[in-house]
Specification:
Elements lengths: L1 H18 L5 H18 L9 H27 L12 H22 L2 H11 L5 H8 L3 H19 L4
Helix pairs in contact: 1-2, 1-3, 2-3, 3-4, 4-7, 5-7, 6-7
């Protein structure tokens, strides 16, 4: 039951963090699965449950980078002549590149937030919990959620260099 609750709460975040590194759907699925296996194997080392979102974000980032490195190594194996030139005047490619860059900066910045902010934002992003439920989970008053969420989002924007 507890494992299912973790998957329900964090699967979407792990997926988005993996995709934010420019991974394909298949690669993001592989990374997600690897992160869950690592949590199963090493989750006991997380002494404070509030650190779980940061651990998941960091592990996802590391796995995504590993996939990217393997992909580059495979491309290098074929030589420069076989690499496809993706340069284009198509503005869609620039928009995708900017969106990927923003997602990567946000995912990285998220891992630098306090455990409290990581937990609060993860709970808010689940989209299924009310402020009352979030406050109860965090052991705080309902009036705590909104202002603290705002401060955490401001910190995330600042660390990711996103204009307000």
């Amino acid at each position: 039951m507890a494992w299912r609750a973790l998957v329900d709460e964090f699967a979407g975040s792990i997926w988005h963090w993996a995709r934010s590194h420019g991974l394909s759907r298949d690669e993001a699925e592989d990374v997600s699965q690897t992160v869950w296996y690592k949590l199963k194997d090493k989750g006991h080392s997380i002494s404070d449950p509030a650190r779980l979102p940061g651990w998941l974000a960091t592990t996802t980032k590391r796995e995504a980078i590993s996939v990217i490195r393997r992909r580059r190594a495979e491309l290098d194996e074929f030589g420069e002549d076989s690499v496809i030139d993706l340069r284009s005047d198509d503005p869609g490619l620039a928009e995708v590149a900017e969106a990927n860059d923003l997602q990567a900066r946000l995912a990285t910045a998220f891992t630098t937030l306090t455990a409290q902010c990581q937990q609060l934002l993860s709970l808010c992003w689940s989209g299924t919990l009310s402020y009352e439920e979030i406050a109860e989970i965090m052991g705080r008053s309902v009036g705590y959620v909104g202002p603290t969420r705002r401060r955490c989002l401001d910190a995330l924007r600042q660390r990711a260099a996103v204009p307000a």
